[in-house]
Amino acid sequence: MQLHTKDYGVIDYEEKDLFFFPDGLFGFSQVQHFLPLCLNEEEDSTILLLHGVEDPNLAFVVINPFTLDPDYAPTLTEEELSYLGVKNAEELSYYVTCVLREDYLSNTVNLKCPLVINPENHKGMQVILESSGYDYKHTLGSFASVQEKKAAV
After folding, report:
1. Most C-beta atoms within 10 A of its C-beta, which of 63, 66, 103, 128?
2. Within 13 Å and on the Cβ side, how many CA atoms surround 51?
3. CB within 8 A of 2, min separation 6: which ones?
4. Is residue 33 within 8 Å of 22, Cβ to Cβ?
5. Which residues of 133-146 are buried (b: 16+ CB within 10 A; e: fewer)?
6. Could you name the Gene Ontology cellular component terms for this entry (predicted)?
7. Right CATH number for 2-144 from 2.30.290.10, 3.40.50.720, 1.10.1740.10, 1.25.40.10?
């Protein structure tokens, strides 16, 4: 299969490579399949570009939130775990959407509504964490100061 993108040209992929969000992402329910592309050189899936298959003009930069804050602790409901086909939240992969700006430290991530993916079957969903203390906009600069404080202890 091929995905024709504006920025990356034609990308060959197999169906097993796709993330499947049956309900889409918030505001984009018409796009259910996303092709993850690694954006960092190590290809360890810390930073991904999720490219919409149904709409190749749609793409999201997502980041593994644990690389920003090792203490990030999303809590999912039993219903959400069941929907994703797991018993424990530790079996899942988490990503948060990133809004990019010219000034790197002004970039923000949404810790309140992570993307949660079962790595076994690539089924995912976006959730709203209830009473989590997380916000929709956390600047990347705020994580640098948190990590500096932890290193000083």
Report:
1. 63
2. 21
3. 10, 11, 12, 13
4. no
5. ebeeebbbeebeee
6. cytoplasm
7. 2.30.290.10
N residues, the chain:
153
Per the DSSP assignment, residues forming a β-bridge with 85 are none
Instruction: With beta carbons less than 8 A apart as the criterion, state whether 127 and 118 touch.
Output: no
- Tens of pLDDT along the chain (153 residues) come to 999 988 888 999 999 999 999 999 999 999 999 999 987 666 667 889 999 999 989 999 999 999 999 999 999 999 999 999 999 999 999 999 999 888 877 899 999 999 999 999 999 999 999 877 899 998 888 886 545 545 544
Cα(98)–Cα(75) distance, rounded to whole angstroms?
20
Q: Which amino acid is at 138?
A: H
- Tell me the Cα Rg of the chain: 16
What are 92's two structure tokens? 């899942």
Give the SS3 label for residue 2. strand
The DSSP bridge pattern shows strands 115-117 and 19-20 to be: unpaired
Q: String of b and e for 9-27 (b: at least 16 CB within 10 Å)?
A: eeeeeeeebbbbbeebbee
